[in-house]
Amino acid sequence: MSVIVVVKDGTRCCMACDSQASLNGNAAMLAAPKIVRSGELLIGADGTLSLISFARHVYPVDRPLVGESLARWVLNVYGPALRRWLDESKHLETRDGRTDFPGTALIARAGEFVHLDSAGNAAQLASNFWAIGSASPEALGAMWQAERDSRSPEYTAYSGVQAAIALDPHCGGKITLEWTS
């Protein structure tokens, strides 16, 4: 279980996460990689770490997405490539034969972010912040309050993850905070 948050600030995005990974509801690792940088993108994944492996090793983004909408690129290029990789990877956890993605992701670049849901849909949200993972409701509440109080994006993201760690026993470990370029 996890929490990954993103906060948009004009021309940049800040992403933060906890570092605990759980297996069968128990903390299994306190240093799980949940955010990876791939070219100009930050990709935060919840669910199975195969989404991070895909972003880091199988489909690294090595060219800028000049003139392309991030949501359109995720929907038409990145999402289908991820789907093909998951379909061809028989060793990955399939969650009892389900055909959805084994998790969700937040994908951010300068000033915009997209939520890739477990059905493979990409949505560019109108909000300045978003959260995914088991403790996303707790994170969203804290982030709403921080934004309402005109706090910085770093503070908003950090407070979201901090609230998730305090209120959800499946979140924990160190807080990682990254900025898009």
Walk me through this protein's architecture.
With 181 residues, the chain is α+β, with helices and mostly antiparallel strands. It has helices spanning 50-58, 70-88, 136-148, 153-167; strands spanning 3-9, 12-17, 21-23, 26-29, 35-38, 41-47, 103-109, 112-116, 122-123, 129-133, 176-179. It has a 5-stranded antiparallel beta sheet with strand order 5-6-7-8-9. A 4-stranded antiparallel beta sheet has the order 10-1-2-11, with helices on one face. Strand 3 and strand 4 form a beta hairpin. The longest helix is centred in the middle third of the chain and has 19 residues, at 70-88. It is globular and about 35 Å long. The two termini are 28 Å apart. The model has no long low-confidence stretch (mean pLDDT 82).
Please mark out the parts with pLDDT under 50 across 5 or more consecutive residues, or reply none: none
| SSE pattern | EEEEEEHHEEEEHHE
Q: What structural class should be given to the helix and strand makeup?
A: alpha+beta
Rounded mean pLDDT score? 82
Work out the radius of gyration.
15 Å
Strand tally is 11
Biggest sheet features = 5 strands, antiparallel
Per DSSP, the total helix count is 4
Strand order of the largest sheet: 5-6-7-8-9
Binned strand content:
25-35%
> Span between N and C termini?
28 Å
Principal-axis shape equals globular
Give the % helix. 25-40%
List the helices and strands and how they pair.
Blueprint: E1 3-9, E2 12-17, E3 21-23, E4 26-29, E5 35-38, E6 41-47, H1 50-58, H2 70-88, E7 103-109, E8 112-116, E9 122-123, E10 129-133, H3 136-148, H4 153-167, E11 176-179
